[in-house]
Every structure is written in structure tokens, then in C-alpha cells.
Amino acid sequence: MNTFAKLRSKGHRITDQRERILQKIKSHPQTVEEIHESLDKKVNLASVYRTLKLFVKNKAVRVINFGDGKKRYELLDEKNHHHHFTCNNCKSIEDISSQLEEKLIEDIQLKSKLKIASHSLELFGVCHNCT
Amino acid sequence: MNTFAKLRSKGHRITDQRERILQKIKSHPQTVEEIHESLDKKVNLASVYRTLKLFVKNKAVRVINFGDGKKRYELLDEKNHHHHFTCNNCKSIEDISSQLEEKLIEDIQLKSKLKIASHSLELFGVCHNCT
DNA sequence: ATCAGTGCAAAGTATTTGCATATCC
DNA sequence: GGATATGCAAATACTTTGCACTGAT
What is one process in the GO biological process aspect for this record (chains A, B) (predicted)? Predict the structure, then answer.
């Protein structure tokens, strides 16, 4: 079930604003302000906040935190689970994924006996361009 | 070189406020408000902000983000690198570490050819008490 | 037609800053 | 003594909320 179907099933409506916001996030994680700007402020800032909160609540979007203290909103795609590498120098962001990761989580789960439902991994360093 | 020695070498001073704030963070990650409260508001809120910013800049402290949107400040201890497990239910936080982790980072580094300097891993799920 | 969502403005929080005073080295 | 820090209050930035109106179903 996709994002909008899920929202509909809960009695929420698919508005033009919601579609546009979701569309914007598709390319890469963005801050509230960036989303607002890139929609030419045609969508009210309060609505951007409300929409993102709704998306997060419905697990269509997740919040990620790079080192800069700003929250960014990213589309959640089960089939494309990945992490981020942030360059400490130029602040560019790269998507990362690894096969070993599942093992790590399993390993932690076994040892700790905790039920791990989700995780977030952020990497920092120097990117190719800045080396 | 410890935190204060590092600060001194950069011309910063060791004040009572800074010592008390660092002391507070030692036990566990805390929000600005929690630190301010636990010092009985004897240290001005603006000073707490300024001090934490200074500590973060000097890598004595790092910011961590659990799911609740609140920033928490944690003492950085090279010798005791760890991650956090946050219970989605009771919001309790547990420290986690794993041997496999180094391998994961190395793996990613090899494949991506990026220079990874640091990373942050946050885990979410259900803790022992809430199962 | 109905009820959820939007825009707008105002209220609430969170964080930063300017400046006079206090304090570390 | 001199430069760095602090406290206080004001300024700025960020986020939420109430309400009348609009629009999706």
C-alpha cells in the first residue's frame, strides 16, 4: 500500500499540497525551509509542517539528522533502505548501503536480546571531491 | 589531552559553569533544558547554549538525536565508543556496542572509497521491560 | 453535504546576540 | 590588567495552534 492509499484508509485526504510536498522530498532529504522555498512558498509554511508531521506519523517519511543540527525529511522506501555519508568539508550528502549491515543489526539483536525495529546510520568524513 | 586542556590551549577559560555542565553530561545524554534544570538554573540558559556549542566545536561533546526531535548532548569518549537503543514505547535509552561494527565501517569504506572519519548509529525498538 | 485541510495571524518554544559586568590567567 | 565569559534582556528563528474558509470525497 503506497503512501496515499495508507492516508486515505485513515480518512485523510489527498490534496495538491500533500502531493507536491511528497514529490519534492523524492529527490533527496530536505529541510522544512528548503521544501517551502522549492514550492515557491505557494504552500503555507504551517501546512508544510503539518503535512510533514502527518507523513512521519504514517511512516511515509522519516527525519534524519546530519551534523548541522537541521532536521531533514526523507522519503521512506522499504525497498531501498540506505544511509548517508556527509562530507565534513563541502557538506554534500551521498547515499550508502551495505550488505554487512543486516548482520550487524542481527548480531546486536542476538547479544542484547532487544527487539530492534529500525535503525539509522549516519557516516561522516571527506568525500571524493574534497580529498 | 583532556577537554579542559584542549580548551585552554585555544585560549578558552575553565569556568565554574563549564565544569558543572561537563560534569552533568557525564552520566547520560541530556537536552539543554535538562542540563539547565539539573543545575537549578544557576547557570544562565544562554551560557548553557554557548558552552555546549563550544564543547561540540571542540569535540568534547556530540549531539545525538533520538526519535523525539530533541537534541541531546553526550560526552565524547574515544575509549568508550557506543551507540544507543531507544525504546519506542517507554523511551528509555540503552547503550549498545558491537564488535561487528568496525567491520561494517571498513566494508563501506572499501566499497565506497570514502574516508569515513566518524559515524553515528541509533537503534529503535522495544526494550526488555516493554516486551 | 460533510468533515478534513489550508492559509493567515498570533502564540509558543527554542536559540542567538549585544552589552555591561564579572572572572580567569 | 586585559581578554574571555557570564547574566540579563531583547532579538531572531523555529514550530504550533485557533479560526474562518476552502476543497476532497
Answer: regulation of secondary metabolite biosynthetic process
Phi then psi dihedrals of residue B98, to 5 deg: -150, 145
Whether chain B has a CB inside 8 Å of the CB on A119: the answer is yes
Nucleotides of C under 7 A from a protein CB: 3-10, 14-18, 23-25
Question: How many CB atoms are closer than 10 A to CB B56?
Answer: 16
Minimum-distance residue to C17 (CA–C1'): B46
The one-letter code for the residue type at A106 is: E
Q: State the pLDDT confidence band at B67, using cuts at 50, 70 and 90.
A: low
Q: Which domains does chain B have, with CATH numbers?
A: 3-75 (1.10.10.10), 83-125 (3.30.1490.190)
Contacts of B55 in chain A (CB under 8 A): none
| Site of grid cell 575509549 | B79
Share of chain B above pLDDT 90, in %: 69
Q: For residues B2 and B109, give the distance between their C-alpha atoms in angstroms, rounded to a whole number.
A: 29
CB-based contacts of A63, cutoff 8 Å, min separation 6: A56, A71, A72, A73, A74, B65, B67, B69
Distance in Å from D22's C1' to B39's CA comes to 50
B52 CA from D10 C1′ (Å): 22
Kindly report the pTM of this predicted structure: 0.88
